[in-house]
Amino acid sequence: MTDLSRDGHKRQPFGQFPRVRLRRNRQEEWSRRLVAENLLTVNDLIWPVFVKEGGAAREPVPSMPGVFRHTIPALVKAAEKAAKLGIPALAIFPVVPRDRKSPRAEEAWRADNLVNRAVAAIKKVVPEIGIICDVALDPYTDHGHDGLMHNNVILNDETIDALVKQALAQATAGVDVVAPSDMMDGRIGRLRDALDANGFQRVKLLSYAAKYASGFYGPFRDAVGSKSSLGKGDKRTYQMDPANGDEALRECALDVAEGADMLMVKPGLPYLDVIWRVKHEFRLPTYAYQVSGEYAMIKAASVNGWLDNDRVVLESLLCFKRAGADGILTYSAIEVAERLAKG
Ligand code: PBG
Prior knowledge:
It is an enzyme of class 4 (lyase). InterPro entries: ALAD, ALAD_AS, Aldolase_TIM. The chain has helices spanning 29-35, 72-85, 114-125, 156-173, 187-197, 218-224, 227-230, 246-258, 272-282, 292-303, 309-322, 333-342, and strands at 45-51, 58-60, 68-70, 89-94, 130-135, 149-150, 153-154, 177-180, 204-211, 262-266, 286-290, 327-330. The chain is an alpha/beta fold. Strands 1-4-5-8-9-10-11-12 form an eight-stranded parallel beta barrel, surrounded by nine helices. The model has no long low-confidence stretch (mean pLDDT 95). The protein binds ligand PBG.
């Protein structure tokens, strides 16, 4: 039998009316605050944002109510707002014009491509906010895959050569954190070596270490326009099978050995067990990505009056903390920071 003596259960003889009442601590608001084991603060938030070329300052993403694609000047303003609210970092995703996409994704490492200009513009005006950029080729390939392809096969090692060029261009633009989301084997070590060899020792590596081939990325692919490129294709030869948990630990172990500074699990809520295991196994800063589909589900139910948006957003983020996440990438970062500031 389990020894429950630590919390006194053992002292209660079978059949006796409860001497131990867990509800006692829940009676008053002050008491609930006092016994709370986890806390969500603004320091836990990373805000993913979309940047586009010209046109209207911001345009809404239909499948993600409340989320916008910003021009660079509008994004700088948004970054200022995020910094004022105390949000530690942004993750920037580019909406790459069709005519900039190609089979070999050369646009990914052009010095003044959209994302690099956005990084430089934000760094100039809001140097105090951390900037994270995805390292993956999907915004730039005309086929919508994260890697280079030949005869429908993703070329792992050739892709890494391209990712290295992409990361160096981002580092030159002033990015603080490069976040490989491509799931090629061996990319963390190669990226670390290349960054160090080029004087970018300060640039951090946040590995999308356990990234699953998920249906929950749908609205994101709408937002950046990679869905039409990808068509009926899927990413199952490089992103992980949702059936697997042990394999996530192997992915993380390799990335830790290769020099990752931080780890990410993605998607978020359906993968809380993975977050828990990764955090407890490696003790690295570990982040959860509450992805576009998770955001869309909450918003869709809320606009219909079926869920209380404010309540379930905060609840879901707190649950990431309970599962061991040190922070959460969430499209709700601004609304949450505003609410936390109000107390
Ligand atoms: C691209 C990338 C994706 C997301 C982040 N980086 C999509 C994908 O892998 O197809 C998804 C984020 C989200 O759904 O919010 N490598």
